[in-house]
Amino acid sequence: MEKNDERLGSAPLGKLMVSMALPAVAAQVINVLYNIVDRIYIGHIAGYGELALTGVGVTAPILMVISAFSAFAGMGGAPQASIQLGKKNYDKAEKILGSSVAMLLLFSVVLTVFFQIFKTPVLYAFGASDNTIVYARQYITIYLAGTVFVQFALGLNTYISGQGNPKVAMLSVLLGAVVNIILDPIFIFGLNMGVRGAALATIISQALSAAWVIHFLVSPKSVIQIRRKYIRFEKETVMGIASLGISPFIMQSTESLVMIALNTGLQKYGGDLYVGTMSIMSSVMQFIVIPVQGISQGVQPIMSYNYGAGNLKRVKDTFVRMVLVCLGATLFLAGIAVLKPEFYAGLFSSNEQLTALTCQYMPVYFLGITIFGIQMGCQTAFLALGQAKVSLIIALLRKIVLLIPLAILFPRFMGVVGVYRAEPVADFISVAVTIVLFIVTWRKVSAESSDK
Hints:
Layout: H1 7-10, H2 13-43, H3 49-57, H4 60-86, H5 90-125, H6 133-144, H7 147-155, H8 157-161, H9 166-190, H10 195-217, H11 235-269, H12 272-308, H13 312-339, H14 341-348, H15 352-365, H16 372-384, H17 388-414, H18 417-451
């Protein structure tokens, strides 16, 4: 029988992309339910739901930093492991996996200790007020206790899909999400735990997902396995993971800086209610972007494997199809936010003032996201081809170079609406630059391949 990893190079491309992408999309959509379901329930707590929603919203940058470190080890290592599988170098692939495990363990300890100690000043810096800090602290204190589960569930799941097992990767996320959806109303309302109940439900769910992932990666069903002898910091392997992992790390960790800039700007020029709109819109952003990430991440192992095998035509064909699908997805999903913002806004709050304010600014904020599928497809291709430097440039451009400075500058001249307008301006410019860089990079990769 053909191994799962071998079909990446030989199965019919259309059917293969669907079989890889659909479970990955399902996994990403299910994964985003962790935060979205929490916020939906929290926003409807009688008496203080809007303040609790805002409080939980300002914890988002910490959650993003934690997931960014898992992406550093997972998305930095999994594409390289896929390339090694394409070269039939299974031992090297397992060394990469083992180093990722070691890195995730270290990250878990450092992140938990740091944020538990400094959570209060950090939350204030992220936009919390005296009215919302109590809810922010309640949520993040419990969530941090499960940092190690988040690291393993997110960081190691990429190694399952990277070897051609997207359905198994999807099931690991599905397990946690279903448990989370069941436990949320029980803990929040049934046991009257409020915000603490939402956090507890989340970490229990992540623990189950992490257990599923580890169980698979130590079993004979996995093409590459976690082996104790490889769980160590080998300099060459760690540097290889870091060179590629720095890009997705920056993409996710700088999202926390973006949230700080947006939340503090909205607090300064608007107030708690405006920060509440960003809590809703950041959740909607996840709903739009995460499925597209699922498409691109599901397809990425096909490109990495065939790049390692030297089949550039199959890499190109995969890329073109992926970008078209990603663009179609963002046009549709972000288009709803632009044309029918009430569809999303009503999900998260029954407060009429907060909902009306969100509907007013959502079309402005999401305008540029309609074409963002192009950038996400190109960004994934950079990672798949091992182009760490170019991927890093794109990661820095949109958020650090463009979005954060614009979010600080615009409201000085436009008032609070300037905070929302910064997003589409940054999106349109970064997509244009990404297209140019991808054309140049592809020509370089093709030339290097033909010289070998």
